[in-house]
Amino acid sequence: MELLKDKVAVVTGGAQGLGLAIATLFAAHGARIVLADLNIDAAESEAAALDGSAQRCDVTDEDQVESLVRTTAERFGSVDIMINNAGITRDKTMAKMSAADFRTVIDVHLYGAWLGTRAAAAIMRDQGSGSIVNMSSISGKVGMFGQTNYSAAKAGMVGLTKAAAKEVASRGVRVNAIQPGLIRTAMTEAMPQHAWDAKLAEIPLRRAGEPSEVASAALFLASDLSSYITGVVLEVAGGRHI
């Protein structure tokens, strides 16, 4: 069953990690994929494997984000799904974190998601339908040591999601967010064993999540299976911090 047959999906930060997992599952369900990433070589390589396309995009650049969405709409005739996934980390305690590292993380996650939401919503309002999914984090729910920048950005994405959902719902556009917890990726598996074990101990399901499980949540929110759901935050965290 192809839940996204003939839908057009844009995924920022789509050349690797969770973004690529989401794009891969969407493609398997019939979506036409546009991978947006700063690493255009990786994006083009992965897009080719998905029979999709790629575009270099700095999500903190208003012109580039608007070009990404506009170009997608012109090429494919619509933008049905927007996944605002691009992100970075600059972890340090407040005492050691520079103002630049704080602002950079806020800009990529929160400002980038706002630019993507705004650009996609403009197209979706006119076509009378669409689904926007913002990739927040469980860090935006509870706050994590050494992540005042990341936690603030991810919490802000929740407020953005809820406010935007109210603004565009009457035009058939839905806006939701996902908060992944401990997901098994190259970045998390590089953590020291003691840190990994401490986080694992907080999870009732007693295991880390897989990128495919986050992708499945995104598929649900992007598809008509969630047609009466907007403005929600879906935790994919194994029960951590409930």
From TrEMBL:
- The stretch of residues making up the signal peptide is none
| Enzyme Commission number(s) | 1.1.1.100
Limits of the Ketoreductase domain = 7-186
The protein's matches in InterPro entries, at most eight in alphabetical order, are given as: KR_dom, NAD(P)-bd_dom_sf, Sc_DH/Rdtase_CS, SDR_fam
Gene Ontology MF terms in the entry: 3-oxoacyl-[acyl-carrier-protein] reductase (NADPH) activity
| Principal EC category | oxidoreductase
List keywords of the entry alphabetically: Oxidoreductase
Annotated family: Belongs to the short-chain dehydrogenases/reductases (SDR) family.
Record's protein name: 3-oxoacyl-ACP reductase FabG
